[in-house]
Amino acid sequence: MRYVAIGDSFTEGVGDERADGSVRGWADRVAEGLAQATQEPVQYANLAIRGRKLGPIVDQQLEAALALEPTLMTYNGGGNDIMRRHVDMGRLMELSRHVVDRCRAAGVRLIVLAGPDPTSRIPLGQVVHHRGEALTADIVALTDEFGLTFVDMWHDQEIRRAGYWGADRIHLNAAGHRRVAGQVLAALGHPAPATTTRVEDPHRSVSDNLLFYRQHVGPWLRRRLQGRSSGDHRTAKHPDYVTISPREVPRG
After folding, report:
1. Is 178 exposed, middle or buried (0-12, 13-18, 19+ CB in 10 A)?
2. Are 169 and 220 within 8 A, CB to CB?
3. Which of 88, 131, 159, 187 makes the best surface tag, with the fewest CB within 10 Å?
4. Which residues lie below 8 Å from residue 51, measured CB to CB, with a gap of 6+?
5. pLDDT at 191 over 90
């Protein structure tokens, strides 16, 4: 199996950091789960880069991914677009349809994901929520049209709990990434790796909320005003295949 993931920070794995500071994430966990389930090595590439809007994902990642001749691709995007002041929802669907058309033409099995909904805990969350609902509805219609596998994390109620999210309240933590990986593996007909980790929701005080605004909301707003992105000058973590062996899959 040759598996390639394209997308933004959600697919890159931000929030699911290893001890050395590198990120793991649900896509890594899917590759590991596939290796465990099949007991065969999986060739895995991840072209996702944090901060990317959907246009750059499609323009810069799609053809590079297809050039690797994958048998399986996962695709998610649009989360950064719907958090901007102005967004062309029609253009987002044009881009997604292009991804579907190119994968169908190449004979690649495509799994489309809607990312989880963080909007109950972020500023202007209601505006973003309405956009996310509209985008997810359009994606459902697109995947239904072509009979594609769709993993809808946007409407997953469990993952909306605070215990699945990192300190910035935008990115999932390790527990959140484990849950997404489990849903993707289930959609592929494989069991999720077993875990005994219990997810506890944190208690957040007034001082915690003030710290959140100072450490995360403020820097995010400054980047928007300066036209910068958290992904500036970053490259994909696995632009070419790495081999995931069933004997080397980490626990947890």
Report:
1. buried
2. no
3. 88
4. 8, 9, 80, 229, 230, 231, 232, 234
5. no
Residue 2 neighbours by CB distance under 10 Å = 15
Tokens at 112, concatenated: 């489309």
How many Å apart are CA 163 and CA 108, to the nearest integer?
A: 35
Comparing CA positions, the residue from 5, 29, 17, 7 lying closest to residue 166 is 17
pLDDT at 113: 98
Burial readout 127-141 (b: 16 or more C-beta within 10 A, e: otherwise): ebbebbbebbebbbe
pLDDT band at 228 (very low <50, low <70, confident <90, very high): confident
Cα 31 from Cα 74, distance rounded (Å): 11
* pLDDT score, position 205: 72
For residue 153 the two structure tokens come to 């994390």
Q: How confident is the model at residue 170 (pLDDT cuts 50, 70, 90)?
A: very high
Whether the model clears a pTM of 0.85, i.e. scores above it, the answer is yes
Tokens, residue 39: 């007991």
Q: Give CA torsion, residues 110, 150, 158, 134, to 10 deg.
A: 120
Per-residue b or e along 26-62, where b marks 16 or more CB atoms closer than 10 Å to that residue's CB: bbbbbbbbbbbbeeeebbbbbbbbbbbbbebbbeebb
Span of 100-109, 123-132, 151-160, 230-239 with lowest mean pLDDT: 230-239
Residue 131 CA to residue 114 CA, distance in Å, equals 12
